[in-house]
Specification:
301 residues; 5-stranded parallel sheet; 14 helices; 52% helix
Length: 301
């Protein structure tokens, strides 16, 4: 099947960089930087769609559902990156946010030939993780036409799940197949067709907002502090202490003592200190408030 890429914004030539190979290093990088400045403005135009998606994901999390990212190449890797960073940042179950890539684990480091062209593979990858109506699928592809992603989107819809697209072409099969289409139009790339650049940056910004927004809306953040962070290394042990100190304005000794009493759970330590309760009482307050630190503290006022 012949594929016509000439109509895709992400495959068009950028006149700004037509002679980039003749520029000095600083001039070359200035051109790239000036183009990169357009990315957050393009993402800004999609904030209403991003907000709707965040609410869908938060609802799914609260009802036993998951967020599933699926993509090929750079897009798939970005989904895996975002998914893998949620457990250490928010203490979330690793199964809550899942990243799938055409070609499987091998494709994370090395391209797998023809994997992205296989619609059935996208369907099978969702079947393998038991995708159901409670889950949210976010299909990621700069072009908006990747068969692997489209196959997954079609299957997700058949199961009753919410289907979202993240792409950088205004009219595409993915935007038409999605319940919500997030489509930051970043324009032609500096190097023609290199969608790991502006398009990839736009996708990363969107995915950051999806998981950060959903985690905030499900009680994983107090103020702007990651109060469910897991202390898996020395740096994060210190971060936990600093979070408790920042949230409660207590001294270091108090923070360390509270964390020790609740087995290193920031959220519980904060509630303990601010409500003058013990670990068991703080745990009960958090349970009654569905894990929202602010509500647990206010309800005990």
């Amino acid at each position: 099947m012949k594929i016509d890429l000439t109509q895709l914004v992400t495959e068009s030539r950028n006149p700004v960089s037509a002679n980039i190979d003749a520029l000095s290093t600083l001039e070359m990088l200035t051109v790239i930087n000036n183009e990169d400045k357009k990315v957050p403005l393009a993402v800004e135009k999609t904030l209403p769609e991003i907000a709707k998606t965040v609410d869908l994901i938060a609802h799914a999390f609260n009802h036993g559902g998951r967020l599933i990212y699926i993509g090929a190449g750079t897009s798939g890797r970005l989904g895996i990156l975002d998914a893998s960073e949620c457990p250490p940042t928010y203490g979330s179950d690793p199964s809550k946010v899942v990243g799938l890539i055409a070609g499987g684990k091998t494709a994370i480091l090395k391209a797998v030939e023809n994997a992205e062209d296989n619609r059935e593979l996208g369907t099978q990858d969702l079947k393998d993780i038991d995708f159901d109506k409670n889950d949210v699928l976010v299909g990621i592809a700069a072009s908006g036409r990747t068969p692997y992603v489209l196959g997954a989107m079609e299957y997700a819809r058949s199961q009753g799940g919410a289907v979202i697209s993240v792409s950088c072409n205004p009219v595409s099969p993915m935007t038409q197949a999605a319940d919500i289409a997030i489509t930051p139009i970043v324009g032609a790339e500096i190097v023609t067709g290199s969608s790991r650049m502006k398009a990839g940056t736009a996708q990363k910004l969107v995915l950051n907002m999806l998981t950060t927004g959903a985690m905030i809306k499900t009680g994983k953040v107090y103020g702007n502090l990651m109060v469910d962070v897991e202390a898996t290394n020395a740096k994060l042990v210190e971060r936990q202490k600093n979070i408790v100190i920042a949230a409660t304005e207590c001294d270091r000794d108090t923070a360390e003592a509270a964390l020790q009493q609740c087995n290193g759970h920031c959220k519980t330590a904060i509630v303990m200190i601010l409500t003058q309760s013990d670990a068991q009482q703080a745990t009960q307050l958090l349970s009654k408030s569905n894990g929202f630190t602010r509500h647990a503290i206010q309800d005990n006022a």
